[in-house]
Design brief:
The complex is a heterodimer of chains A (116) and B (115).
Chain A lengths: L3 E4 L2 E4 L5 E7 L5 E7 L5 E8 L2 E5 L6 E7 L2 E6 L8 E8 L11 E2 L3 E5 L1
Chain B lengths: L2 E4 L3 E5 L4 E3 L1 E4 L4 E8 L5 E7 L5 E3 L5 E5 L4 E6 L8 E9 L7 E3 L3 E6 L1
Parallel strand pairs in B: 2-12
Antiparallel strand pairs in B: 1-4, 3-9, 5-6, 5-10, 7-8, 8-9, 10-11, 10-12
Classes of the chains: A mainly beta (116), B mainly beta (115).
């Protein structure tokens, strides 16, 4: 069983379109994340949700809007796609211990977004 | 703000050679440290992690890393690499703060092991 899954795996679209990427984890984790990996393989966090509540929101254009319908899902919606949005987007999740400390993050397979 | 630097962008070596990848971070407080590996076309997988205790940690696939607090370093090592170790390796740091669990990644090191 896949622990952290993302759909779609590949997404090719035109500039200006709106698209969504879905993420689901079946690990029972409280916290989920979105990361962007650019063409140089540099990984940077975009958002983090804990129990459906936004806790990390890095400097990301407001065309990107995460949505967490429940703690097992964190979707990423992108409006008015631009060429520079082309990247691999990784979802991740982690448990939160009783002390409030977090643990390692488990990553999904990634979604390769290509904007033409 | 915390930052992570990996000294080598590309490493090429032959099978059975020893591997050491450098990682330094900048943050004065308590940190959790990780090494992730990304095989070609795949997602990130955890190799090993340091939270506390013995600064020499052993991970999967024969990898180990040593946390040297005074040097703000967490270098990854493997005594004898295999062709299957060809991958991108990422060092990551989580500074223990009140809000969130923000992993800051280094720029990655691409390792190519020649058969």
């Amino acid at each position: 069983d896949t622990a952290v899954s993302q759909t779609p795996k590949y997404l090719v679209t035109q500039m200006g379109n709106d698209k969504s990427i879905k993420c689901e984890q079946n690990l029972g984790h409280d916290t989920m994340y979105w990361y962007k990996q650019d063409s140089k393989k540099f990984l940077k966090i975009m958002f983090s949700y804990n129990n459906k509540e936004l806790i990390i929101n890095e400097t990301v254009p407001n065309r990107f809007s995460p949505k967490s319908p429940d703690k097992a899902h964190l979707n990423l919606h992108i409006n008015s796609l631009e060429l520079g949005d082309s990247a691999v987007y990784f979802c991740a999740s982690s448990p939160k211990t009783g002390t409030g400390l977090y643990n390692e993050q488990f990553f999904g397979p990634g979604t390769r977004l290509t904007v033409l | 703000a915390q930052s992570v630097s990996q000294h080598n962008h590309h490493v090429i070596l032959s099978e059975a050679a020893s591997l050491e990848l450098g990682c330094n971070y900048s943050y004065g407080g308590t940190v959790n440290l990780f090494w992730y590996v990304q095989y070609p076309g795949q997602h990130l997988q955890l190799l090993l992690k340091y939270f506390s205790g013995d600064p020499l940690v052993k991970g999967i696939k024969g990898f180990e890393a040593e946390f040297i607090k005074s040097k703000f370093s967490f270098n990854l090592r493997k005594p004898s690499v295999q062709w299957s170790d060809t991958a991108e390796y990422f060092c990551a740091v989580n500074a223990l703060k009140a809000a969130g669990n923000k992993l800051t990644f280094g720029g990655g090191t691409r390792v190519l092991v020649k058969p």
